[in-house]
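PROTOCOL LOG
Step 1. Enter all chains and additional molecules of the complex.
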Amino acid sequence: MRISPAALLLSLPAFACSTSDSPSTGADLVVYCSLDQDLSEDILLDFETRTGLKVEIQFDVERNKTVGLVNRILAEAQNNPRADVYWNNEIAHTLRLKNAGLTVSYQSPSAEGIPASFRDPEGHWTGFAARARVILYRTDREGPVPHKLDDFLDPATASVGAMAQPLTGTTLTNATVLSLQRGNQQMLDWFTAVEKAGLSFGSGNADVMRRTANGDFLWCFTDTDDAAKAIAQGHPLAVRYLEQGDGDLGALLIPNSICILDSGKNLGAAQQFVDYVLSVEVEERLANSVSEQIPLHAGVEIPAGIQIPGQDYKVMDVDWDAVAVAISSRAIAFQKAFVK
Amino acid sequence: MSLIRGGRSARPWWTLAMLVTLVAAWLPLLPLLEPIVRFDRLAEMLDARTAGLLWRSIWISSAAATLAMLIGWPYALVCTRFRFPGAALFRLLMPLPLLLPPLMVAQAWFGLTGMTGPAATIFTFGMCYAPLPALLAARSLGKQSAAAFETALLISPRLALLSMLRISLLPTLIGGSFTFLFTAADFAVPDYFATVGDLFHVYAAEIFGHSRNFDFAAGATASLPLILIGLVVLLGNAQLLKRQLGFEKGHGRFARATPAGKASAPLMLLMLAFVAALLLAPLARVLFETGHQGVLSERSWLEVSQQAFRNSVGRGRGDIVRTLTFSGAAGLMCLLLAPLWAHLLLRCRNAWRLPLLIILCLPLLVPSVALGFGSILMFNRSWLDSFYSSMWLPALLIAGRFLPIAVFILLDAMSRVPDSQEESAELAGCHYLQRLFRYRLGSQRASLWLSASLVVAFGVRELDFAILLPAANASAAVRYYNALHFARDNFVAAYGLILVFLLFLPVMLHAWWQSLRSTKS
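Step 2. Run joint prediction.
Step 3. Record the structure below.
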């Protein structure tokens, strides 16, 4: 029997389109999730088990620092939006989606009890399970550990510390918040000054945490979830919250955020999922996980190590809408300053 | 003027190969073509900072390619053409380092030596890609004409050695040039070494940064210098292959390995040193990492390691199966596409070779994150939903992207087969596929499998567009990198080892089967 190339060519698309091996085929709900896969995966699978809904889950990698899925949502929205819900591990990029008109308003009953500053008044997004920006320092060594952000300018302190470059993730969000408070150029000057003072820059929060855990640095500026992991791994480390003095702005708290996307499909299932994720139960699970996410509902049972924002430490007020508008242009400015 | 000189029956198959390549590799590039050639915008982007980044990428990649060749060439020469205890085992182990994810090797060497910075990046890529020149050189050395070699040996052993060096030089350079390309395009390894040591950046970080900020047009424009450099390198490869065509072809018997005699022990030690550096040391370190904990931890190494392996199997099993499925499908596609392309390039008229090479190679040079977004824009349509969500999309993209590697391997292999064999088969009325696979590739099946295996291996390691495609998102690479950046070091090590073992297995089984067959014959 002779094989014809034309027949082979014609059969390929038919074969490809007829396959049903995709995880999304017949999915009742498509969830894009930027939270760490091994923290969120079980929560998502439990939702499937409880509701009997088939959920397609798409994860991001930390190298993209959330932005991979956000960019994918924006690109897919051009022709054929696929995602029904976006669970973001931070907040600024969720607001970018809202500003792009891709989110749907939904006031979840589960959001009751979450402070208003972490909820969109129009219901396009809701914050939950937060991380704080903190100093992680070694407890087995003496040396200067910052109490305030401007302590980074002191060469004795800076030379034994590290932080991630403000190119992605919570560090970019943090730097954008600060640049809105201090001014863009002033923030760039501040980075130049701390680098000159001897502060080391790493490529991510987990990386500077790892180097502090290994003893390369006395302290690093990172997130509470990275700090919790390092401490759980048995390294002699402790956490300090910045800017806690009288008149200080307080520590920056960055919540996870969730929003329903305008895919035109599966709205009921999406609302059901948002109710589930915003529940006290999920916040409790995340608080008791290795990353010790900080619950925003009052009265959640938390492990002894977690400090409660507003009660145990002062929290910075942030205009998240302004952050969302500014973050893209700040990212480009920081890229020019740091990628060299 | 006819494009080809391959007989009428070949043309439909070559057309098929080109059409599939256009769909697999060029369709996703369409949205990027306009920004890629925005020279005016590139001129604005190129300043002292970006030029510095580009220069750093070029010298790091050149040094890595040189190191890969310095290791790969002698490795191939010694274990292919000298007989000493263990030579067969060293040949068997030759491709394996290529299957180790570079990031895993980087972590292992950092853990072993504490090295960081550009030097560590060069070392890692040199080690990871040394098998590329080694494999290509070994194929050439294994197919050297016995008559030519023995004649040279009769004149002087030095001339015989020179003939071996001469026949393996060009494939080594081709392997080195691929090392250059992969190093220049990689962002993860330099990023890792910048993280664990002093901060430095490479040009790929600039491209990635634009894409991360959702300015894909800027990302595409910024990638133009790397694309042009890559094209020059690949076209240089084509010239090397053309020269290779003028070399002796393997008529009849192939040269046998020479007994090493008194040099057996030193050669064995040399090979052991190579294998230790390329394979054993990184694997041992990664194994250690599976149970490594902080000083205050009360759990034993074994306990932690067992838990890490349990987690890896429990959580990552499905992702590994999916990854192997779509990468395997890509490899299978290349089993058909690569011989057709290689044959087309071998038989086409000279004037057509350059445009054909550009069509074939450009998709490999475009950053894969751009390819991923291009795929979303082209294939994410409601009427293509089942295809867009299926395993076939990543399989097609992997096949299209890594096809040039397979084609170059086969082009080198096919060029060693005398044209007369194929022409006789054509005169005898054989069908084109029969002529191609039986008479052109019949004696080169190992190259065919090698080319497909490399496509599978590169597919397994692919992250940047995997994360953007529905069916590839739940893949081993995504889980691996996710865990890596969230500091799940024990899980990452265990998962990496499982993945590597699964990749090693078919290569080892194939090599074992080959050696059984040769023993029987």
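Step 4. Note key features.
Residues 163 and 468 of chain B are 48 Å apart (CA to CA).
Chain B has a mean pLDDT of 85.
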